[in-house]
């Protein structure tokens, strides 16, 4: 079974679907490889006019896969850095899509799921969904997603939620520039379709060139920023704090800082 599925309708609207609902669409190494490959195929397909990023099941994306995280826990620093780059490559491939990318967020998103939201051109989310940059609870950093998250949110909004692992709702996510629209779950399909339809009345080449121009004018995430984030996370993995945080997570016990905070 493919972990990333794509489907293109007769109008040229492509669905790029996370398909690991039994694991809350947590991003495994294989899933990220498939995501890069699928994005490359869609980018090269001239008939595709709009891409909708969506997910199977009740959760949009729970972040990094636990088994993948556990494997990194045992790696040497050089191998861990290589593995760590996977999510940056997946986000970069989505950000580089020449077509408009619309996020259809039907449920919760944490960690890496926030990165997926941040590379979309516009995002529709449902009432009741929860969001958060939860990495610091584990002693880690929201590093590899960071360049894309900050590019979307802006620095002032990011300062509210980037460092504190706060869980917040859909309306707060909209205020923080992560979501563009918040709708009732039963209205999600219609709301996404309402965002797709205007593009289909436009010249496809003009839409692509408009997106390229927009990216050039507002500034794109640079390779140097991505490398800086990867280096920051690699260094953080080596700290005693990160080692204790990850160990506590897998042992299902509070990390020492959580205990001190009264959690």
Assembly of the depicted chains: single chain
Mean pLDDT: 93
User: What string gives the helices and strands in order?
Assistant: EEHEHHEEHEEHHEHEHHHHH
CATH architecture identity of the domain at 4-186: Alpha-Beta Complex
Q: What is the global morphology?
A: globular
**CATH class term of the domain at 4-186:** Alpha Beta
Which fold does the CATH topology of the domain at 4-186 refer to? 2-enoyl-CoA Hydratase, Chain A, domain 1
What is the β-strand count? 9
How much helicity do the residues have? 40-55%
Radius of gyration: 18 Å
Overall structural class, as computed from helix and strand content, comes to: alpha/beta
Describe the main β-sheet briefly. 6 strands, mixed
Major beta sheet, strand line-up: 1-2-3-4-6-9
Q: What is the CA-CA span between the terminal residues?
A: 40 Å
Strand content: 5-15%
Which residue ranges are poorly predicted, with pLDDT under 50 across at least 5 consecutive positions? none
Helix count equals 12
Q: CATH superfamily of the domain at 4-186, called what?
A: 2-enoyl-CoA Hydratase, Chain A, domain 1
Question: What are its keywords?
Answer:
263 residues; alpha/beta; 2-enoyl-CoA Hydratase, Chain A, domain 1; 6-stranded mixed sheet; 3-stranded mixed sheet; 12 helices; 9 strands; 50% helix
Could you describe the 3D structure shown?
The protein has a domain at 4-186: 2-enoyl-CoA Hydratase, Chain A, domain 1 (Alpha-Beta Complex). The chain is built from twelve helices and nine strands. It has helices at 29-44, 66-73, 77-95, 112-118, 146-153, 155-161, 170-175, 188-200, 204-218, 223-237, 240-251, 256-260; strands at 4-8, 13-18, 50-55, 101-105, 109-110, 122-126, 130-132, 168-169, 181-183. Helix 1 packs parallel to helix 3 (77-95), helix 3 (77-95) packs antiparallel against helix 10 (223-237) and helix 5 (146-153) crosses helix 6 (155-161). The longest helix is centred in the first third of the chain and has 19 residues, at 77-95.
């Amino acid at each position: 079974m493919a972990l990333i599925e794509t489907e293109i309708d007769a109008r040229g609207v492509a669905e790029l679907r996370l398909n690991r609902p039994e694991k809350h669409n947590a991003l495994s190494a294989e899933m990220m490889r498939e995501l890069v490959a699928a994005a490359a195929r869609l980018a090269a397909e001239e008939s595709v006019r709009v891409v909708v990023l969506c997910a199977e099941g009740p959760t949009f994306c729970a972040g990094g896969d636990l088994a993948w995280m556990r494997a990194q826990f045992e790696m040497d620093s050089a191998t861990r850095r290589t593995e760590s780059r996977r999510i940056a490559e997946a986000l970069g491939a989505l950000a580089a899509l020449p077509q408009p990318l619309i996020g259809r967020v039907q449920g919760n998103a944490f960690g890496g799921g926030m990165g997926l939201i941040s590379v979309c051109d516009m995002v529709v989310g449902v009432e009741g969904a929860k969001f958060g940059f939860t990495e610091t609870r584990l002693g880690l950093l929201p590093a590899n997603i960071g360049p894309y998250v900050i590019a979307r949110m802006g620095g002032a909004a990011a300062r509210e939620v980037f460092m504190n692992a706060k869980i917040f709702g859909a309306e707060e996510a909209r205020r923080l520039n992560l979501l563009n629209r918040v709708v009732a779950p039963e209205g999600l399909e219609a709301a996404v379709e309402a965002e797709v339809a205007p593009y289909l009345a436009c010249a496809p080449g003009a839409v692509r060139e408009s997106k390229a121009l927009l990216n050039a004018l507002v500034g794109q995430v640079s390779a140097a920023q991505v490398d800086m984030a990867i280096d920051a996370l690699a260094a953080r993995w080596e700290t005693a704090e990160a080692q204790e945080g990850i160990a506590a997570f897998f042992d299902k016990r509070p990390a020492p800082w959580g205990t001190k905070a009264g959690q």
